[in-house]
Amino acid sequence: MTSAGRFAPSPSGELHVGNLRTALLAWLFARSTGRRFLVRVEDLDRARAGAEELQLRDLASIGIDWDGDVVRQTERAELHASALRRLAADGLTYECFCTRREIQEAPSAPHAPQGAYPGTCRDLTEAQRERRRAERPAAIRLRAGVSEWAVTDVLHGRYAGLVDDFVLQRNDGVVAYNLAVVVDDAEQGVDQVVRGDDLLPSTPRQAYLAGLLGYRVPEYAHVPLVLNPAGRRLAKRDGAVTLAALASAGVGPERVTELLLASVRLPGSPSAALAAFAPAALPREPWVLDPAELTSRPPHRAELSGLGGSTAV
Ligand SMILES: [Zn+2]
């Protein structure tokens, strides 16, 4: 299968400049390495009517193109179920009946890392499971054989993190994100995962699961997020941060693209940025952005010069 990179937004509303910046970086990583670029809509949880169309329109208007049809996670339930059946057949799953509260209140095993599932349901007898099934539907958890796993990330180097008996299928029957993302990436031929570095802590779980399913672990690049001046992840309430809001304020998509590329020290058009792109030169710190700057400043020559010597086209 041809190798590919991807952008996988949740269709919960319009994308903001933080999402768009991550999308641009994923596109640059994929295209600069000759990969196909896929868009997958992660709609297991939060799909707002019309959001997908808006998001695709916004991606196109900042110069991102993609290959093939846009795929939706909810259309892939059979692939997810099939992966779950393979894990179950290998004895790698078990039913968990814990409520959130029971997990919080359970005494954690000695030396268990913070946030790890305490293993309450791991060794229930069949009689105990029968009884619990009558009380509430079960979630399905992975029977993990390790407590830590290491991945290699293009920007972070070696990163080791927690692997616990994480949930594969929620007790409402919906496949869990960690399983869906691993199956979808592998089945779509995605061998390069570029996304926000808030997802780095869940990456060891996903890489470990990919191995159990016999998939090749993709190359990872977790890119810094955009933060508001208070140091929190940028959100729509922070100001005019969507393309539509910025357009209303007189800042068009080309200008937004220039600003986003300047924030990663690249020249201001997608094609020029692609020619100049080098992962090693990317900033490793978050971009702290006061949204007011997007609308108050006129285009500033100095900001766009000296960016790798390429001329913005
Ligand atoms: Zn449990």
Automatic annotation (TrEMBL):
Similarity comment text for this entry: Belongs to the class-I aminoacyl-tRNA synthetase family. GluQ subfamily.
Function: Catalyzes the tRNA-independent activation of glutamate in presence of ATP and the subsequent transfer of glutamate onto a tRNA(Asp). Glutamate is transferred on the 2-amino-5-(4,5-dihydroxy-2-cyclopenten-1-yl) moiety of the queuosine in the wobble position of the QUC anticodon.
Motif ('KMSKS' region): 233-237
Name the record gives this protein: Glutamyl-Q tRNA(Asp) synthetase
Organism of provenance: Sinomonas terricola
Positions of L-glutamate binding: R6, F7, A8, P9, S10, E42, Y177, R195
Gene3D superfamilies: HUPs
Keyword annotations from UniProtKB, A to Z: Aminoacyl-tRNA synthetase, ATP-binding, Ligase, Metal-binding, Nucleotide-binding, Protein biosynthesis, Zinc
Cofactor note (record): Binds 1 zinc ion per subunit.
EC annotation from Swiss-Prot or TrEMBL: 6.1.1.-
A Pfam family hit: tRNA-synt_1c
High-level lineage: Bacteria, Bacillati, Actinomycetota, Actinomycetes, Micrococcales
Top EC category: ligase
Extent of motif 'HIGH' region: 9-19
